[in-house]
Amino acid sequence: MPAYDVDLDKFAALDAQVVGVSVDSIPCHQAWQEFSIGWLKYPLCSDFFPHGAVAQKYGVQRTGSPIPGINERAIFIIDKDGKIAWSKVYELGDQPDNEECLAVLRQIEQKAAV
User: Fold this and answer.
1) 2-113 is classed in which CATH architecture?
2) Could you tell me if 57 and 47 are in contact, meaning their C-beta atoms sit under 8 angstroms apart?
3) What's the confidence (pLDDT) of residue 32?
4) Long-range contacts of 22-31 (CB under 8 A, 24+ apart)
5) Structure confidence at residue 114 as a pLDDT band (50, 70, 90)
6) What is the pLDDT of residues 46-69, one digit of tens each?
7) Cis-peptide, bond into residue 50, ω within 30° of zero
8) For residue 26, which phi and psi values (nearest 5 degrees)?
9) Is 111 buried (19+), middle (13-18) or exposed (0-12) by CB count in 10 A?
10) What residues does each domain of the chain span?
């Protein structure tokens, strides 16, 4: 997740906002940042109560092993009309490549300009 901090300017240049969502509580998010990954410069939202409601709606809450009840590692690009323009689910240990998302955002920007 800290890798997004590095490219926030690139996302902003494409009129995009990075937002993280996890089923962990806000105190858990704070402790994770303070003691593990460092403070993020973008919003990290808690989908804690009702537990995983957003993850369920997006179809990315794990129901089986390993670790049922957490989110899959997934990226969604939501367009200005509130519709999912692109999504991809990754392995939990994977760090998605920012350039993949930036390329999709560029394509969306080009389509909007036409």
Assistant:
1) 3-Layer(aba) Sandwich (3.40)
2) no
3) 94
4) 22/46, 22/47, 22/70, 22/71, 23/47, 23/48, 23/51, 23/52, 23/55, 23/61, 23/69, 23/70, 23/71, 24/48
5) confident
6) 999 999 999 999 999 999 888 899
7) yes
8) -60, -45
9) exposed
10) 2-113
Q: Which helix (H) or strand (E) covers residue 78, if one does? A: strand 73-78
**13: closest CA among 109, 95, 88, 84?**
109
The 3-class SS string of 28-50 reads HHHHHHHHHHCCCCCCEEECCCC
With 0-12 / 13-18 / 19 or more C-beta atoms within 10 angstroms meaning exposed / middle / buried, residue 57 is: exposed
Average pLDDT over residues 80-105: 94
The encoded tokens of residue 33 equal 């940042």
pLDDT above 90 for 27? yes
Q: What is the mean pLDDT of the chain?
A: 93
Contacts of 1 (CB under 8 A, 6+ apart): 20, 37, 40, 44
pLDDT at 111: 86
